[in-house]
Design brief:
Layout: E1 3-5, E2 11-13, E3 19-23, H1 28-39, E4 43-47, H2 51-61, E5 68-71, H3 78-92, E6 97-100, H4 106-110, H5 122-150, E7 153-158, H6 171-191, E8 196-202, H7 218-222, H8 233-244, E9 253-255
Parallel strand pairs: 3-4, 3-6, 4-5, 6-7, 7-8, 8-9
Antiparallel strand pairs: 1-2
Helix pairs in contact: 1-8, 3-5, 5-6
Protein backbone atom coordinates (compact mmCIF):
# COMPACT_ATOMS: atom_id res chain seq x y z
CA UNK A 1 0.00 0.00 0.00
CA UNK A 2 1.26 3.40 -0.86
CA UNK A 3 0.39 6.38 1.28
CA UNK A 4 -0.09 9.90 0.03
CA UNK A 5 -0.92 13.16 1.70
CA UNK A 6 -3.78 15.21 0.28
CA UNK A 7 -3.85 18.98 -0.03
CA UNK A 8 -5.75 19.05 3.26
CA UNK A 9 -2.86 17.21 4.95
CA UNK A 10 -4.82 13.97 5.39
CA UNK A 11 -2.82 10.81 4.89
CA UNK A 12 -4.40 8.28 2.55
CA UNK A 13 -3.58 4.60 2.51
CA UNK A 14 -3.93 2.08 -0.29
CA UNK A 15 -4.27 -1.60 0.48
CA UNK A 16 -0.91 -2.61 -0.99
CA UNK A 17 1.27 -1.51 1.93
CA UNK A 18 -1.21 -1.07 4.80
CA UNK A 19 -1.06 -2.88 8.12
CA UNK A 20 -4.24 -4.74 9.04
CA UNK A 21 -5.20 -6.53 12.26
CA UNK A 22 -7.91 -9.19 12.03
CA UNK A 23 -9.22 -10.56 15.33
CA UNK A 24 -10.92 -13.93 15.31
CA UNK A 25 -8.78 -14.73 12.29
CA UNK A 26 -9.24 -18.49 12.64
CA UNK A 27 -13.00 -18.21 12.11
CA UNK A 28 -14.90 -18.29 8.85
CA UNK A 29 -15.29 -14.52 8.52
CA UNK A 30 -11.88 -13.63 9.93
CA UNK A 31 -9.96 -16.03 7.72
CA UNK A 32 -11.81 -14.88 4.58
CA UNK A 33 -11.01 -11.24 5.35
CA UNK A 34 -7.38 -12.04 6.15
CA UNK A 35 -7.00 -13.87 2.82
CA UNK A 36 -8.55 -10.98 0.93
CA UNK A 37 -6.37 -8.32 2.56
CA UNK A 38 -3.19 -10.37 2.04
CA UNK A 39 -4.14 -10.94 -1.61
CA UNK A 40 -4.42 -7.16 -2.00
CA UNK A 41 -0.88 -6.75 -0.69
CA UNK A 42 -1.53 -5.77 2.92
CA UNK A 43 0.55 -6.86 5.87
CA UNK A 44 -1.81 -8.80 8.12
CA UNK A 45 -1.81 -9.58 11.84
CA UNK A 46 -3.78 -12.78 12.47
CA UNK A 47 -5.09 -12.76 16.03
CA UNK A 48 -6.99 -15.64 17.58
CA UNK A 49 -6.92 -17.79 20.71
CA UNK A 50 -6.39 -20.79 18.41
CA UNK A 51 -2.67 -20.38 17.83
CA UNK A 52 -2.29 -23.49 15.67
CA UNK A 53 -5.10 -22.40 13.34
CA UNK A 54 -3.70 -18.92 12.70
CA UNK A 55 -0.21 -20.26 12.13
CA UNK A 56 -1.63 -22.64 9.54
CA UNK A 57 -3.52 -19.77 7.91
CA UNK A 58 -0.38 -17.63 7.84
CA UNK A 59 1.52 -20.40 6.07
CA UNK A 60 -1.25 -20.66 3.49
CA UNK A 61 -1.49 -16.96 2.64
CA UNK A 62 2.12 -15.86 3.17
CA UNK A 63 4.90 -18.31 2.50
CA UNK A 64 7.83 -17.32 4.69
CA UNK A 65 5.67 -15.14 7.00
CA UNK A 66 7.28 -11.96 5.69
CA UNK A 67 3.94 -10.16 5.50
CA UNK A 68 2.01 -11.79 8.35
CA UNK A 69 2.24 -11.82 12.12
CA UNK A 70 0.34 -14.35 14.22
CA UNK A 71 -0.73 -13.55 17.74
CA UNK A 72 -2.56 -15.66 20.30
CA UNK A 73 -4.66 -13.34 22.43
CA UNK A 74 -8.01 -13.17 24.20
CA UNK A 75 -10.28 -10.18 23.60
CA UNK A 76 -11.24 -10.25 27.27
CA UNK A 77 -7.60 -9.82 28.27
CA UNK A 78 -6.86 -6.16 27.59
CA UNK A 79 -3.15 -6.51 28.39
CA UNK A 80 -2.75 -9.16 25.69
CA UNK A 81 -4.42 -6.86 23.14
CA UNK A 82 -2.13 -4.01 24.15
CA UNK A 83 0.84 -6.33 23.64
CA UNK A 84 -0.46 -7.34 20.21
CA UNK A 85 -0.88 -3.70 19.14
CA UNK A 86 2.60 -2.85 20.41
CA UNK A 87 4.12 -5.83 18.59
CA UNK A 88 2.41 -4.76 15.38
CA UNK A 89 3.77 -1.22 15.58
CA UNK A 90 7.21 -2.48 16.55
CA UNK A 91 7.34 -4.62 13.43
CA UNK A 92 5.66 -2.41 10.84
CA UNK A 93 5.52 1.06 12.38
CA UNK A 94 1.76 1.60 12.29
CA UNK A 95 -1.77 0.15 12.40
CA UNK A 96 -4.01 1.16 9.50
CA UNK A 97 -7.07 -1.08 9.69
CA UNK A 98 -8.55 -3.24 12.44
CA UNK A 99 -11.41 -5.67 11.90
CA UNK A 100 -12.90 -7.28 15.00
CA UNK A 101 -14.76 -10.44 13.98
CA UNK A 102 -14.55 -12.31 17.28
CA UNK A 103 -17.90 -12.98 18.93
CA UNK A 104 -20.85 -15.32 18.86
CA UNK A 105 -24.21 -16.42 20.20
CA UNK A 106 -24.62 -18.55 23.30
CA UNK A 107 -24.82 -21.62 21.06
CA UNK A 108 -21.61 -20.71 19.26
CA UNK A 109 -19.70 -20.02 22.45
CA UNK A 110 -20.89 -23.01 24.46
CA UNK A 111 -21.95 -25.56 21.80
CA UNK A 112 -25.32 -25.71 23.60
CA UNK A 113 -28.67 -24.45 22.38
CA UNK A 114 -29.59 -20.78 22.57
CA UNK A 115 -31.97 -20.06 25.43
CA UNK A 116 -34.97 -17.85 26.10
CA UNK A 117 -34.33 -14.84 28.33
CA UNK A 118 -35.64 -16.37 31.55
CA UNK A 119 -33.82 -19.65 30.97
CA UNK A 120 -30.35 -18.08 30.78
CA UNK A 121 -28.08 -18.06 33.78
CA UNK A 122 -26.17 -14.97 34.81
CA UNK A 123 -22.95 -16.71 33.80
CA UNK A 124 -24.29 -17.43 30.30
CA UNK A 125 -25.47 -13.85 29.89
CA UNK A 126 -22.10 -12.49 31.04
CA UNK A 127 -20.22 -14.77 28.65
CA UNK A 128 -22.12 -13.60 25.57
CA UNK A 129 -22.09 -9.91 26.51
CA UNK A 130 -18.44 -9.93 27.51
CA UNK A 131 -17.15 -11.70 24.41
CA UNK A 132 -19.15 -9.54 22.00
CA UNK A 133 -19.31 -6.14 23.69
CA UNK A 134 -16.43 -5.97 26.15
CA UNK A 135 -14.21 -7.65 23.57
CA UNK A 136 -15.06 -4.91 21.06
CA UNK A 137 -14.39 -2.23 23.68
CA UNK A 138 -11.00 -3.73 24.53
CA UNK A 139 -10.09 -3.98 20.86
CA UNK A 140 -10.91 -0.33 20.20
CA UNK A 141 -9.01 1.03 23.17
CA UNK A 142 -5.95 -1.12 22.47
CA UNK A 143 -5.42 0.20 18.92
CA UNK A 144 -6.88 3.70 19.08
CA UNK A 145 -3.85 5.39 20.75
CA UNK A 146 -1.61 4.39 17.83
CA UNK A 147 -4.16 5.62 15.30
CA UNK A 148 -4.52 8.90 17.19
CA UNK A 149 -0.74 9.33 17.13
CA UNK A 150 -0.52 8.73 13.37
CA UNK A 151 -3.71 10.77 12.74
CA UNK A 152 -5.32 8.04 10.65
CA UNK A 153 -6.88 4.60 10.93
CA UNK A 154 -10.06 2.64 10.37
CA UNK A 155 -11.69 0.37 12.95
CA UNK A 156 -14.45 -1.93 11.68
CA UNK A 157 -16.56 -3.82 14.21
CA UNK A 158 -18.60 -6.86 13.21
CA UNK A 159 -22.06 -6.43 14.71
CA UNK A 160 -25.28 -8.21 13.75
CA UNK A 161 -28.75 -7.50 12.43
CA UNK A 162 -29.89 -9.25 15.61
CA UNK A 163 -28.83 -6.10 17.45
CA UNK A 164 -31.46 -4.23 15.41
CA UNK A 165 -34.19 -6.87 15.06
CA UNK A 166 -33.77 -9.76 17.52
CA UNK A 167 -34.99 -13.26 16.84
CA UNK A 168 -36.24 -15.72 19.49
CA UNK A 169 -33.81 -16.97 22.16
CA UNK A 170 -31.30 -14.27 21.31
CA UNK A 171 -31.62 -11.82 24.22
CA UNK A 172 -27.99 -11.81 25.35
CA UNK A 173 -26.62 -11.71 21.80
CA UNK A 174 -29.11 -9.01 20.74
CA UNK A 175 -28.22 -6.87 23.75
CA UNK A 176 -24.49 -7.32 23.15
CA UNK A 177 -24.64 -6.51 19.44
CA UNK A 178 -26.91 -3.51 20.02
CA UNK A 179 -24.24 -2.40 22.46
CA UNK A 180 -21.56 -2.85 19.79
CA UNK A 181 -23.52 -0.51 17.51
CA UNK A 182 -23.72 2.08 20.29
CA UNK A 183 -20.02 1.65 21.03
CA UNK A 184 -19.19 2.14 17.36
CA UNK A 185 -21.15 5.38 17.12
CA UNK A 186 -19.63 6.77 20.31
CA UNK A 187 -16.10 5.76 19.28
CA UNK A 188 -16.63 7.35 15.87
CA UNK A 189 -17.59 10.60 17.56
CA UNK A 190 -14.71 10.53 20.06
CA UNK A 191 -12.03 9.55 17.52
CA UNK A 192 -13.21 11.55 14.53
CA UNK A 193 -11.25 14.65 15.50
CA UNK A 194 -8.09 12.57 15.09
CA UNK A 195 -9.08 11.39 11.59
CA UNK A 196 -9.80 7.88 12.91
CA UNK A 197 -12.82 6.16 11.36
CA UNK A 198 -15.06 3.66 13.15
CA UNK A 199 -17.81 1.71 11.40
CA UNK A 200 -19.84 -1.47 11.88
CA UNK A 201 -20.85 -4.25 9.52
CA UNK A 202 -23.76 -6.64 10.00
CA UNK A 203 -22.84 -9.73 7.97
CA UNK A 204 -26.20 -11.51 7.98
CA UNK A 205 -26.32 -15.30 8.09
CA UNK A 206 -23.22 -16.65 6.37
CA UNK A 207 -22.86 -19.94 4.56
CA UNK A 208 -20.34 -21.63 6.81
CA UNK A 209 -20.71 -24.01 9.69
CA UNK A 210 -19.91 -21.75 12.65
CA UNK A 211 -22.76 -19.33 12.03
CA UNK A 212 -25.18 -22.18 11.37
CA UNK A 213 -24.98 -23.33 15.00
CA UNK A 214 -27.71 -22.67 17.51
CA UNK A 215 -30.77 -23.98 15.75
CA UNK A 216 -30.88 -21.22 13.16
CA UNK A 217 -32.94 -22.30 10.17
CA UNK A 218 -31.35 -21.34 6.88
CA UNK A 219 -34.69 -21.88 5.17
CA UNK A 220 -36.51 -19.63 7.61
CA UNK A 221 -33.81 -17.00 7.33
CA UNK A 222 -33.69 -16.96 3.54
CA UNK A 223 -37.47 -16.60 3.40
CA UNK A 224 -37.01 -13.16 4.97
CA UNK A 225 -34.45 -12.02 2.42
CA UNK A 226 -35.22 -10.12 -0.76
CA UNK A 227 -32.95 -12.35 -2.83
CA UNK A 228 -33.67 -15.73 -1.27
CA UNK A 229 -30.08 -16.61 -0.47
CA UNK A 230 -27.39 -16.31 2.18
CA UNK A 231 -24.15 -14.35 2.02
CA UNK A 232 -20.69 -15.92 1.74
CA UNK A 233 -17.54 -15.21 3.75
CA UNK A 234 -15.81 -14.15 0.53
CA UNK A 235 -18.49 -11.60 -0.33
CA UNK A 236 -18.30 -10.23 3.20
CA UNK A 237 -14.51 -9.99 2.90
CA UNK A 238 -14.76 -8.12 -0.40
CA UNK A 239 -17.10 -5.60 1.20
CA UNK A 240 -14.89 -5.05 4.23
CA UNK A 241 -11.80 -4.45 2.10
CA UNK A 242 -13.79 -2.04 -0.07
CA UNK A 243 -15.10 0.13 2.77
CA UNK A 244 -11.75 0.03 4.56
CA UNK A 245 -10.33 2.18 1.75
CA UNK A 246 -13.07 4.82 1.91
CA UNK A 247 -11.92 7.99 3.65
CA UNK A 248 -15.15 9.89 4.37
CA UNK A 249 -17.28 7.34 6.22
CA UNK A 250 -17.51 6.95 9.97
CA UNK A 251 -20.23 6.14 12.48
CA UNK A 252 -22.11 4.04 9.93
CA UNK A 253 -23.83 0.63 10.01
CA UNK A 254 -23.61 -1.52 6.87
CA UNK A 255 -25.85 -4.53 6.30
CA UNK A 256 -24.26 -7.13 4.03
CA UNK A 257 -27.59 -8.84 3.68
CA UNK A 258 -30.84 -8.58 1.72
CA UNK A 259 -33.22 -8.61 4.67
CA UNK A 260 -35.10 -5.46 5.56
CA UNK A 261 -33.97 -4.60 9.09
CA UNK A 262 -36.02 -2.16 11.12
Amino acid sequence: MEREVTSEGVERMSSENGVVIVTGAAGGLGSAVARRFRASGAKVVLMDRNEAAVKKLAAEIDEGNEHTLTYSADLLNYASLQAMAAATVERWGRIDIVLNTAGGTLAMLTKKDNKALLDQTEEEWDLVVNVNLKGSFNCVRAVAPYMIQQQSGHIILVASGTGIRPGPRMSSYAAAKAGVLGLMKSAARDLGEYNVQVNAVNPGLITHELLALGGASAEGYTSETMLGRLSSPEEFADFVVYISQMKSISGQIYNVDSRVLF
